[in-house]
Design brief:
With 578 residues, the protein is of the alpha+beta class. It contains 19 helices and 19 strands. The chain starts with a helix and ends with a strand. It binds 6-diazenyl-5-OXO-L-norleucine (DON).
Length: 578
Amino acid sequence: MFNKYYTKMKRSIFFSIFSIFLILSACRTKPDKSPYTITQNIIGDSCMVVAEHPLASKVGVKILKAGGNAIDAAIATQFALAVVHPRAGNIGGGGFMVVRMADGETAALDYREEAPSSAYRDMYLDSTETVIELLSKEGHLAVGVPGTVAGMEAAFQKFSQLKNWGQLLEPAIQLAENGFKITQPEATRLNKYKKQFFQQNETGVPFVIKGQWEMGDLLVQKDLAATLRRISEHGAKGFYEGETADLIVTEMKRGGGLITKEDLQNYEVRWRDPIISEYKNYRVITMPPSSSGGVALSQLLKMIEPFPLAQYGFHSAKSVHTIVEAERRVYADRSKFLGDSDFYPVPVDSLLDDDYLKIRMADFDISEATLSDSMGSGNFKDVESFETTHTSIVDAAGNAVAVTTTLNLNYGSKVIVAGGGFFLNDEMDDFSAKPGVPNYFGLIGAEANAIEPGKRMLSSMTPTIVEKDDDLFLVVGAPGGSTIITAVLQTILNVVEYGMPLDEAVEAPRFHHQWLPDQIKVEPTAIDTVERQILWDMGHQLKGVSRMALIKAVQVLPDGKLHGVGDPRNVDDHAEGY
Ligand code: DON
């Protein structure tokens, strides 16, 4: 009796705190101005680039205007992002690219980082087998062998129309050489991480100044310009061999990191078959392992398909409950079964099998939350910074690219390659350091995602292209760690189920559940008060968060025009088209 009363009281205290949070969040001040003119919601006649920085989107459009296709534009945009968006855009990280050519050909490029050859399963555990908190997140031991430059070269070799590698690098070189005005979010983060930059590097790096960075300050990166020049001249060899490789290895030795010359030389991208699944009259083309994103997204869509969400109503308790129950099951599957398929037999076909998914939802009760298995306690932090970066592109011929790349957390490991001028990732944290112990994003893994030399750490990045009735319809993706998958899902559902125009679909507040911890994370105003109470009464736990994931998307409209949309959650998102 007392227990029941206590639980109710606890719920209503939670509920009151949550409501206050929502009111405060709703009152938050509008983002500061930018040194650039930002457009986040535009219609183009034939081409569109949506990226996380206005200068990067402009570089993409410049390449399209010069006769490049969507892949050329994506490559140039990625290199530009490595300069103007250094906390996520990178040459020292990795990522995934999904391509759909105008003739319907599809491809998925995996240029994810790999564990160095001397990495081993328990490398982040102390003598009591406890995970050493920061080791996989900051400093030289956190760094996986970078894949980005090899990825860009592979995309170029397979799909470039321009066939001029140097031309794709040149805008980035100029931006690094001559400098550019930093935006407010960049200034804020450069100031925030100053201490870590000092801890992980010797002084004199371009990212550390005497005073505080301010919006509009010029960031010049001479060392990075020289590195980009080497890549421009020698292709991927300008990174994985010669001077740049020497600089990386010297940096590793200085800080006790593991990456060797051989690790760099041996790095190879993987062309994979994209995951392609049907949802009503849509076809979803997305990323297979080593990302979990495509499997999870496809599972979610198939599990949700039988339920009349539109009839339930947008973010009604019933529709949130249905989606959450699917998410709970999918993230539980993720933690057990997903990892690098070159190292672990990931049962992709079984996970996407219609009968399996039906059985998986068979214990779903429309009126009551299923409690997540309480094994292992997810320790989900509020992810307030979004350090990955996504770009969506469609060119005049109708070729489409969705590309997501990352250093993992802000500025990755915070290690800057001395003399090379670029940050190295901290992607090793995406491995499961120990079964049942959550990573930064609260994600739990086991054997499938255990560390092994040369293995790729499991990702949540979900670059995705959707066809409608066999034609290109939507290009979408986002940064946001574990919330990427559910944000991409909700953007698609908002368009195809709730009939929203793309700008509303991206702006609409989101919610997220990832099995453990057993709670629904909810953006302000995502679920109204009455429906929230119904969800609590069903047995769900709700937790307010300020924002989740930053979608960048392009939709092909019925008249063939392109609707480009950046996420209003981020002042730097910029859609540019013509
Ligand atoms: O690959 C992944 O899933 C993560 N390293 C992505 C990190 C991310 O999105 C950071 N932003 N919140």
